[in-house]
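User: Sequence in, structure out. Go.
Assistant: Echoing your sequence, followed by the structure tokens.
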Amino acid sequence: MCLALPGKLVEVYEQDGLSLGKADFGGIRKEVCLACTPEAGVGDWVIVHVGFAISRLDEAEAEAVLDSLREVGETDEAEATRHEVHPRIP
């Protein structure tokens, strides 16, 4: 399964002729390539897949994606806890 995550651009710069930026993912900042989203600027939300910002999105869309991911994470935690407490339950 491939996953793309929303990140907020906190810095945009050019290096060796390539448009790059730093995206914040809930406190973790990673360098991302902006070649596919040259219009993206500081403060914009972008969807990042394997280090490439592949599209821009507005803050409401970003929050909806993040809420969904949190929900899935909570479901995964509940599932793991259920198996720890009742290991024979599938």
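User: And one key feature?
Assistant: The chain has a mean pLDDT of 86.
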